[in-house]
Amino acid sequence: MLVVMSVGATPEQIEAVADRIRQFGYTPHVIPGGIRTAIGITGNKGPEGRELLLMMPGVEDVVRITVGYKLVSRETHPQPSVFPIAGTAVGGAFTVIAGPCSVENEAMILETARFMTGLGVRLMRAGAFKPRTSPYSFQGLGEEGLAILAKARRETGIGIVTEVMDVEMADRVAEVADVLQVGTRNMQNYSLLRKLGTVRKPVLLKRGMAATVEEWLLAAEYLMAGGNRQVILCERGVRTFADHTRNTLDLSIVPVVKHLSHLPVIIDPSHGTGRAEYVPAMSRAALAAGADGLIVEVHPDPRCALSDGQQSLSFDGFRALYESLKPLADVLRVTLR
Ligand code: PEP
Ligand code: MN
Predict the structure, then answer these.
(1) How many Cβ atoms sit within 10 Å of the Cβ of residue 129?
(2) Of 149, 157, 169, 321, which one's alpha carbon is 20 to 30 angstroms from that of 201?
(3) Does ligand 1 lie within 6 Å of residue 184's CB atom?
(4) Is 148 in the pocket of ligand 1 (CB under 6 A)?
C-alpha cells in the first residue's frame, strides 16, 4: 500500500503515520516528493490498517499497489529519480559512463581517467573483480585494482563505477566505488542484493541475460526494500537465437521500464553488441529511445585488452561517438553529461 500525504502535511504528521505503520508490524518508506510526501508500506499482506491510516491527520489517501515491485514502481514515485554522484548525476539527463572492461594496471587507468575528464565525462567504469565465463581467463586484479581506482579518483576526481561480485567484498568495494555494479550473472543473487540494500552507495543493476522485466524490477525491489533508494537499471543485451551480435540489445525495454518505474535506465552497447563497430549506432539509438545514459567500454589499446577488447572503443573512437551524441541530444532537448 501507499499512503499519500496531503500537500501541507507536517513532518510530525508524516512521522506519526510512519510510527503507526511500524506498530502494525510493517515497514514504512518515506518518499519525499516535489509537491507532497508519500509513504510506501512493505511487508503488509493485505489491506488491513487502511481505514485506520485514512483517519490520521495529514493523510490524503491510501492506495493499493498492484505490482510486486512497489518501491521501484511509478505508482509509488511518479517523478523520475535523479541520483547525484561524484559531481554529476544519473537520471533526468543522458549520462555517459566509460572506461575499460577491467583494471589492468595503474598506467592505463590513470590515462583513461585523464582522457575522460578532459572530454567532460565524469564517471569511469572498470572492473577490479571480473566475472569471467572461463576460470582460465583474466579474473581482474582484485584488491590491487581497487587501490588503482582509488588513486585515479584522487588524482582526477572522476567517479568510479566498479563491479561487486560477492557479499564478502561488498563493504570493501563500497569504500572505493561511487557506483556499485551488479553484473548480469548476479542479478538474481539475492543475498548480494540484500547486502547492497544496506550500503549507502548507488547500485547499477544489470539486467540478467535471460531476465524478464518483472524479474529485473523485483531484483531492484530487493535493493530498495533493504533501504537503498539509489538504483540505476542497466540493459546489456539478452540471449536470443540471433548470433550476429554477442547478445541482443533489447532497447525496446527502455520505454517499458520508463513506464513502469521511476528508476533511471542506462544502456550498455558494448556487451549488448560485442563489437566496437556497432557501439556508436546503438549508443545513439539509446539516446533516441529515451535512456538515461550509457556505460561504454573504452580502452587505450583495444587490441591488447585483457578482457573484451573486441567490443572496446579506442580513445579516438570514443571521442567521435561522444561528439556525435551532442547534436542529437540538442535536437531531443536532453542534457548530455
Ligand atoms: C562488464 O561490465 O564488464 C560485465 C562483465 O558486464 P555483464 O555483467 O553485463 O556481462
Ligand atoms: Mn566487459
Answers:
(1) 23
(2) 321
(3) yes
(4) no
DSSP state of 314: P
- Choose one of 206, 233, 294 to mutate for the ligand 1 pocket test, by most ligand atoms within 8 angstroms of C-beta: 206
Angle at 246 between CA 298 and CA 90, to 5 degrees: 45
Q: Which regions of the chain carry the CATH code 3.30.70.1140? A: 2-63
pLDDT in tens, 147-202: 999 999 999 999 999 999 999 999 999 999 999 999 999 999 999 999 999 999 99
Domain spanning 83-332, CATH architecture: Alpha-Beta Barrel (3.20)
How far, in Å, are 86, 96, 168, 255, 306 from residue 150 at the CA level?
Answer: 13, 20, 19, 35, 21
For 122-142, how does the pLDDT look when each residue is reduced to its tens digit (9 = 90+)?
999 999 999 999 999 999 999
Pocket test for ligand 1, best of 132, 138, 268 (most atoms within 8 A of CB): 268
Nearest Cα residue to atom 4 of ligand 1: 183
pTM above 0.70, yes or no: yes
Instruction: Give me the CATH topology for the region 2-63.
Output: Alpha-Beta Plaits (3.30.70)
